[in-house]
Amino acid sequence: MGDAVIKPLFVKGPSLGVRLLVLTVLSVSLMVVDARFDTLKPLRSQIGLLATPLYWLADLPTRLWQDMTQSISSRSELLAENEKLKAEALLLQRRLQKLAALTEQNVRLRELLNSAELVDEQVLVSELIGVDPNPFTQRVIIDKGSKDGVSLGMPVLDARGLMGQVVEVMPYSARVLLLTDATHGIPVQVNRNGLRAIANGTGNPGLIELRHVADTADIKEGDLLVSSGLGQRFPAGYPVAVVKEVVRDSGQPFAIVRAEPTAALSRSRYLLLVFSDQRTPEQRATDSAEAQEAADRDAAARQEAAAPPPAVAPAPAAPAATGENRNGRN
């Protein structure tokens, strides 16, 4: 019999340095392919679908802590909070009644001007379930995705103002790029005088900048910046930020304007997704023309109904009969 082959107890494989090098090359290759091509987008979407339960599990301790905190609150604090909320509800109802009256008045004035009636945007309530761990981006993850009708570019806002827009959609979740991200920009205007500008993110969660604003522009601290709607991505008239600092240098053509977002970017949990008007310009023009024709027909009908009936002319009188005719002979 030949010598028995003795199997080694510890099999020696590639060294740790070689393994690290292979993994590093593989990681860099995947990052380059993901940055320059769209090959990995379906894979990333599927990974996001698989990671959705992990986001819920990661958020579970916060939910449990909040439930526990609410359950151990004292009865007196709850009663005081209840009374405060009732008072605020009464004030809001009074304000809502005034706004309803103003809305009706506005509708009547627009009808008189033969103008199109404004319709409120359709919105979808969503909840924040995660924050992007990358320190160089300002992104959050919400619990609504393509299954709920979410699409790329949808504006996102909270109770105080605009927060950002959807940049990636997965079946049951989506990623939102915040206004303060360094790659984000939004057309705005000063609410006080209508001055237009572009607000860009700085990477700082509480700061945005207005670039290329003339040194002589009429803008000052405390001015409210609202969305202008010129980019046709964000609806017009929503609060964006409040100017906090205006630095003017006589030697520079542009002023440095810094503003603080009105939305609570780092505190808001419940958000609103705004569905924009998906009609083409031709469809909008056709709908506007049809609405104008309908308004003209209604105005003509009302004018015809209000007009007095035409006067009926009296019948001509019969000629007077002569003596000969009265006797029936010539």
Give structural notes.
There is one protein chain. With 330 residues, the chain is α+β, with helices and mostly antiparallel strands. 37% of the residues lie in helices and 23% in strands. It is built from five helices and twelve strands. The chain has helices at residues 16-36, 41-71, 75-112, 281-306, 323-327, and strands at residues 122-131, 139-142, 155-157, 162-169, 174-178, 185-190, 196-201, 208-214, 224-227, 239-247, 254-261, 270-275. The strands form two sheets. Strands 1-2-5-4-3-12 form a six-stranded antiparallel barrel. It has a six-stranded antiparallel barrel with strand order 6-7-8-11-10-9. It is extended.
- Oligomeric state of the chains in view: single chain
- CATH homolog superfamily of the domain at 124-279: Rod shape-determining protein MreC, domain 1
Largest sheet: number of strands, sense, barrel closure? 6 strands, antiparallel, barrel
CATH class of the domain at 124-279: Mainly Beta
Task: Give the overall shape.
Answer: extended
Low-confidence region ranges: 115-119, 320-330
Radius of gyration: 35 Å
Strand order of the largest sheet: 1-2-5-4-3-12
